Amino acid sequence: MCMKIALVNKKFSLSGGGAERYAVDLTNALLDHGHDVDCYGNTIEDVGEKAGKCFVPMFKKPGWLRILSFAKNFKTIIKDRADKYDIVYALTQAYPADLYFMGGGAHKHWLSLRFPNPVLNLIKRIVTPTHSAQLWLENQLYNQNNCTAILANSNLIREHSHLYGKVSAERVFVVHNGVDHIRFNPEVISKYRGVTRNEFGIGQNDFVISYLSHNWARKGLYTIFKAMSEIKKEHGTKCKIIIGGKGNIDDFTAKGIALGLNKKDMIFVGAYSMPERLYAASDVSILPTMYDPCAGVTVEAMACGVPVITTPENGSHELIKHGESGFVLSGYDAASELAGYLSTLQNKELRKEFGRRAEMDIRYRSFSQVVVESIDVMKEIVEIKKRAKNEK
User: Per the confidence metrics, is the pTM higher than 0.85?
Assistant: First the structure.
């Protein structure tokens, strides 16, 4: 069954972030599967020659106007075109759509975590209109009149769509994120472990944590520092941490030193272009995040055969067998609990077994599998639309 698909995202580009690259990869994969794809976006590049390109204008700044102008202009453009598509699939907040990928999670949930005080929460929405714009569009997409179904990348996000949008279970499909097994696999350990440790001045017998994020406050770097400090004080166990991504290095270095950590044990490597080398150099990968729909760094580390530790607020935790391939913390600030797990993983043989099981658990989650499962969802929605049309 060949489908005519309208794929919607603000930007299609391999030079962009994860969402922008995913839009390109999905477009090209759908073309490879024999489907017709038209890309609706403000920037469209790197997609296959057979893909149609439909420009959607939008304001660049401020943020709230950028979000709303794209959604409004897309709505105007698609109004007279929607009937020619089997599926209108929105990868960003835009409607009307047959399918919406809720890859960014529920913004209302994130705000409730970031600003739990109701008064402060309201003030933040008022003084930062970008929040209000995202919440308004989120509510529009929960409405069945604007969006037939939602594709969530974890059960966590499915639950949030029901909690915050009262979306019925039959309207939500779950397809967990996949991973590139050609790039991320156990062979990277033998290939890169030694050379990467030498590159950063790390001893071959040192116990090393890898941490990758562009939001160190939201994703728990300080929690890791506290855990490292605790096991150093109580057990005399010393850990080193490789920190990839962008953030305030001076601020977090000072926080680590204040906790008694050695500056040399906090290795900041910036936006590192080969994260597989960082996983290979580490003994455990940790992401004590406040909120992540389905963090890619977790599944990448697992695919490399590295034990992982994360939180229930990371949808990727659903792919971990707690106590077998990794650990799931009770919360993002559970530093003492994390310290205990780090002590457990000091055992080299146990750590090796955890890594083996982690790779086994994630082996079936490839990007190709994600595409196949997504196509199955689209086909089901086509049938739902046909039945609804016949019932009229």
Answer: yes
